[in-house]
Amino acid sequence: QAKSRGRNGYQFYAPDMDGEGVLRLRMEALLRRAIERGEIFLHYQPQVDIESGRLIGVEALVRWTNPELGSVSPVRFIPMAEETGFINQIGEWVLLEACRQMGRWDEAGLVVPKMAVNLSVRQVERGAMAPQVARVLAETSLAPHRLQLEVTESVIMNTGDALAFVHELHAMGVGLAIDDFGTGYSSLAYLKQLPVDVLKIDRSFIKDIALDSDDEAIAIAIIQLGKSMHLSVIAEGVETEEQAAFLLRHGCTRAQGYLYGRPVAPGELLQEWGQDERRNTVA
Ligand code: C2E
Ligand code: MG
Ligand code: MG
Ligand code: MG
């Protein structure tokens, strides 16, 4: 609308600045202050062993709630933060907070075996990520093997420094998961050189697993690949018992999804899993 009004002789914004553009700018400005204003927080989603139902870890998922905008999805604000570079501050805050939370649960009597934290390409390409991880582990006294960093295939493929970073992580004892696996373009030959621990089958393949034979074939291929490369495989976005049964039948024993639990606040995770007798059977 701003555009057409512009042609009529007046305009409030740059010619290509429509309502969406204005909202974007406003959102970017608000996002910059979000950490200091305490608007950023984490939810945690359980990862479980399908057969026993026991908790094998959680994934930290960042949340932003702003008085003006309400709650904004990370699908919206993470790409924005990546463009503005603000992702580095968010990412650093997320990593520290997630590792601290492990200590709080430990003290409360809930042992969450692993904390998975997402990293964006901007964080890795900056080259300061390995020292940051080491610093956070030291500061929070979290054992390195209890931290697992998640990167997508594109982070690995498009970042010059990724290889060095991945090897540094491995040397520290920190785990590495490839997120959204199957949606990117990583070559298997390349992947084979990397000390990767986990492949996460993308939710898009799980969704129609029992209905779409292509998705089914892809899921099975990823499970097989994991087996032959001695990696563990976690299925993302598992929502139904049918999907879980399919996965188990094909040798994938780990899952994350609404069937087992939505991302929740730390207190809620403690309530749901802290009383669970299965916690004592954690290997
Ligand atoms: P992701 O890392 O692949 O995270 C999984 C997403 O799937 C989460 O969305 C989660 O809430 C959602 N999900 C989990 N189980 C189910 C299910 O059964 N059904 C459906 N429909 N969805 C399910 P969320 O929290 O909206 O996060 C979206 C993406 O935003 C993440 O995808 C990740 O790429 C990014 N993200 C989230 N937190 C962070 C962060 O701290 N740092 C960075 N760099 N990216 C983050
Ligand atoms: Mg993830
Ligand atoms: Mg994913
Ligand atoms: Mg994703």
From TrEMBL:
Residues 24-277 form the EAL domain. It comes from the Bacteria. Coiled coil: none annotated. This is EAL domain-containing protein.
